[in-house]
Amino acid sequence: MRYSGFRLIKEALTGHTGWTPVWRDASPQPRYDIVIIGGGGHGLATAYYLAKEFGQKRVAVLEKAWVGGGNVGRNTTIIRSNYLLDGNEPFYEFSLKLWEGLEQDLNYNAMISQRGILNLIHSDAQRDAFIRRGNAMILNGADAELLSVAQIRARYPFLNFDNARFPIKGGLAQHRAGTARHDAVAWGYARGADSCGVDIIQNCEVTGFRIEDGQCRGVETTRGFIAADKVGCAVAGSSGRLMAKAEMRLPIESHVLQAFVSEGLKPVMPGVITFGAGHFYCSQSDKGGLVFGGDIDGYNSYAQRGNLDMVEDVCEAGMALMPALGRARLLRMWGGIVDMSMDGSPIIDRTHIDGLYFNGGWCYGGFKATPASGYAFAHLLATDSPHPTAAAYRFDRFEKGRMIDERGAGAQPNLH
Ligand SMILES: Cc1cc2nc3c(=O)[nH]c(=O)nc-3n(C[C@H](O)[C@H](O)[C@H](O)COP(=O)(O)OP(=O)(O)OC[C@H]3O[C@@H](n4cnc5c(N)ncnc54)[C@H](O)[C@@H]3O)c2cc1C
Predict the structure, then answer these.
(1) pLDDT for residue 410
(2) Backbone phi, then psi, for 377, in 5-degree steps?
(3) Fewer Cβ within 10 Å of end Cβ, the chain: N or C?
(4) Residue 123 C-alpha to ligand 1 middle, in angstroms?
(5) Reduced to 3 states, what is the DSSP secondary structure of residue 336?
């Protein structure tokens, strides 16, 4: 079913009896050409592009729980391409360009809003670093603009410009960045993939791989064995646990990342802002809640809930930036499991096992990567060669020392 204004009017006049389910509830078939493990944003986008762009007809997505229940439905919804390094910026700019046409491509309203992001500057050294970043973005075809204090004050008058420790000295803006309704992205890709013939199988946990003579023949699941010529893993925070079943140890640690939403307020925050003297990022949802987050909880975990010390840490950073935040009540908070790689950048690569492919290490930032990650992983699975924008996301960069250390934090996941 195609969605349109006419369809809406027709359904409104006929008692809304014509709507059909957004995707089929498929049962597992004994064999597929390609099986994707993980029904998050990346797995569903991969399946969609495999079917639509690469003509793959026998594809299944296996999801242990329900579509949208993982990080794709738990993030703070920020999309942007304000990266510095060559290995990253072309990939994230490719992703932002896909975001820009995504709703038309999927015929699905994902509430993509290019309301802009502003990275605040609090020191002269930080200004130098952000000018460099802005130039790198422009060289890669992205947009970037350095804003003065007066320009920022006009847009965000409630920020604490004269904070004695962290005065605001300017900001780097990317006007094409913004937000998207996170779970609608999962639903839109699921609907798109399903309409191209992909089987989306929920409540189907992969419990093991069948590997014979160095070749992956398929997956063991809670709904039986499923044979496949190729298996792509896209399980984000569960990457370590899943790949251990293939006896692989990844350069990835799993940590909890929490998100917070305040009570609904009148419009106060027109775009996304990030604090440059701590880890705090904030936007306002269309319902009025301030949506914000900060650092990961500093211990390894597979639990989808965080602890109170990080609540205090994030709220302190928020208060340093915008003291009025203290007057708003916190309505809800939740945690997701993020797959922190050792250099803060992702991996989209073949494994040493034939027919087994991996996509993970997305850290805090995989939501904005969803379209490009899906496209690049589909490219790899279909052609056995990396997509040009994702060519640096290889496993062997850790062995060869070709890290893509965007933050310059070294091999310390808790700092990325
Ligand atoms: C609180 C929070 C805020 C964030 N904010 C942002 C942000 O503002 N911007 C941004 O770009 N990124 C953000 N991120 C990161 C982003 O959400 C993730 O990097 C991205 O969603 C991960 O990819 P995914 O959508 O495929 O993951 P998921 O949605 O987690 O999908 C993985 C799926 O795999 C399934 N699975 C796991 N094991 C198995 C198995 N054995 N068998 C079958 N299925 C399995 C899981 O159930 C899950 O549904 C945030 C993350 C969190 C937690």
Answers:
(1) 83
(2) -70, -40
(3) N
(4) 34
(5) strand
Indicate the CATH number for domain 26-80+84-93+96-106+182-252+343-415.
3.50.50.60
Cβ(103)–Cβ(112) under 8 Å? yes
Question: Is CATH 3.30.9.10 the classification given to domain 114-174+253-341?
Answer: yes
Rounded-to-10 torsion of CA 64, 70, 72, 78:
-170
- Among residues 81, 162, 178, 83, the alpha carbon closest in space to that of 129 is found at 83
pTM for this prediction: 0.97
Contact 118, 172 (CB under 8 A): yes
Using an 8 Å Cβ cutoff, are 49 and 359 in contact?
no
**What are 170's strand-pairing partners?**
121
**Ligand 1 atom index nearest CA of 62:** 43
- Choosing from 78, 235, 358, 368 the residue with most ligand 1 atoms within 8 A of its CB, the one to mutate for a pocket test is 235
- CA angle, 191 then 193 then 197, to 5°: 110
Every domain of the chain with CATH number 3.30.9.10 lies at 114-174+253-341
Asked whether 136 and 81 are in contact (CB, 8 A), the reply is no
Percent share of the chain, pLDDT over 70: 100
pLDDT in tens, 324-367: 999 999 999 999 999 999 999 999 999 999 999 999 999 999 99
Pairing of strands 330-341, 178-179: unpaired
Mutate to test the pocket of ligand 1, among 64, 66, 75, 283 (most ligand atoms within 8 A of CB): 75
Index of the ligand 1 atom closest to the CA of residue 44:
26
Instruction: Give the number of other CB atoms < 10 A from CB of residue 153.
Output: 14
**CA–CA distance, 311 with 332 (Å, rounded to integer):** 11
Per-residue model confidence (pLDDT) at position 409:
83
Nearest residue CA, atom 31 of ligand 1? 40
Which residue in the block uniquely carries the two structure tokens 């809640």?
A: 289
- List every span in the chain annotated with CATH 3.50.50.60: 26-80+84-93+96-106+182-252+343-415
List pocket residues of ligand 1, CB cut-off 6 Å: 37-43, 62-65, 69-72, 74-78, 205-206, 234-238, 242, 257-259, 293, 336, 338, 362, 364-368
Q: Which helix (H) or strand (E) holds 320?
A: helix 308-321
